[in-house]
Amino acid sequence: MNNFDFYSPTRIIFGKDTQKEAGENVKKYSSKILLHYGGGSIKRSGLYGQVTASLKAAGVDFVELGGVVPNPRLSLVQEGIKLCRKEKINFILAVGGGSAIDSAKAIAMGVPYNGDVWDFFMQKAKPQSALPVATILTIPAAGSESSLSVVISNEETQMKLGYKTNLIRPVFSILNPEFCFTLPKEQAAYGITDMMAHIFERYFTNTPNTELTDGLCESALKTIINNAPKVLENPKDYNAWAEIMLAGNIAHNGVLGMGRQEDWASHAIEHAISAVYDIAHGAGLAVVFPAWMRYVYAKNPLRFKAYAVNVWGEKDALKAIDKMEEFFKSLGLATRLSAFGIKEADLPLMAQKATAFGAIGAYVKLSYEDVLAIYKAAL
């Protein structure tokens, strides 16, 4: 096991009707905030009205910025930075899924910075401060509600990049599984795949003697696999959604990565796909992971044998990968790039973007040629 320094300050407020506590919790930090969200779904569901009523009751003034879309855009982040500066905002409440939360985090980093917020993603600068952020999660998937990560898409350059800093871990996050009852099936499936991917990026490691976190990873994966069919069959199954929502949070809050080297090659591979083709992140991951696993499994057969036996009940690694791919298909997801109209001629461009800063991954270092080969296998 490696040395580690674990820090997770996010307060998790979990359960029914917890959205009604938003105002009293925000008031502890600010009396004027940015309310940041996506499209009209939170208004149609009634969540917007409940949140704004709670803010007003607590005496919290708010300025709104909606319009967040999947693969959140740099242009909206820049708009949010200008709005916060103009209105003298010192706190951001994000209501939505990972895209709204990531957009809020990027705005939070950009407000106190004198340069272009994209500098952080291009590794040209490091933030020294950020506005505090809180979240009300509506889509269990990205785990951004308690993570130190943010991912933003630059529409002009077709680059989708991430950044990590403890400055942007939310101060509190409200998780009510009831918010999931009206999720479209494809969004639920994307979220399930995304949280599994976060576990894979930590589970597949070369670090020895990680028995405890190995078991935690395997348990979280089995919990997701067990409950995913339940929520797709009965979208109002509160207990199954509670398991999924908690698993998504634990998958990316850092607990599962304690003391172990993490990989993250597959996320870089997928980011390049969604940067060019603007597909949903979870949809891309369902394509990337089977191809990545088949490409690297022979490098560390004992790790993949443990995965096969302890997660899927299979003795053979390739059979376990096949079983995982069938699971993705059972969620209604495609597992080939061609299903999204992705052309072979664009694969070199995506491989270049995925390796723009050099070889990726830690479990197995992947060069441009390796990434291109994985894309071709996934086509």
Structural account:
The chain is an alpha/beta fold. It folds into 2 domains: 11-178, Rossmann fold (3-Layer(aba) Sandwich); 185-378, Dehydroquinate synthase-like - alpha domain (Dehydroquinate synthase-like, alpha domain, Up-down Bundle). It has helices at residues 22-26, 41-44, 47-57, 74-87, 98-110, 118-121, 185-203, 211-233, 238-252, 265-277, 281-296, 301-312, 317-330, 347-354, 368-378, and strands spanning 11-14, 32-37, 61-65, 92-96, 133-137, 149-154, 159-164, 172-175. A 6-stranded parallel β-sheet has the order 1-8-5-4-2-3, sandwiched between helices. A hairpin with a 4-residue loop joins strand 6 (149-154) and strand 7 (159-164). The two termini are 37 Å apart.
Q: Topology of this protein?
A:
Layout: E1 11-14, H1 22-26, E2 32-37, H2 41-44, H3 47-57, E3 61-65, H4 74-87, E4 92-96, H5 98-110, H6 118-121, E5 133-137, E6 149-154, E7 159-164, E8 172-175, H7 185-203, H8 211-233, H9 238-252, H10 265-277, H11 281-296, H12 301-312, H13 317-330, H14 347-354, H15 368-378
Parallel strand pairs: 1-8, 2-3, 2-4, 4-5, 5-8
Antiparallel strand pairs: 6-7
Helix pairs in contact: 4-5, 7-8, 7-9, 7-11, 8-9, 8-12, 10-11, 10-14, 11-13, 11-15, 12-13, 14-15
Characteristics:
379 residues; alpha/beta; Rossmann fold; two-stranded antiparallel sheet; 15 helices; 8 strands; 48% helix
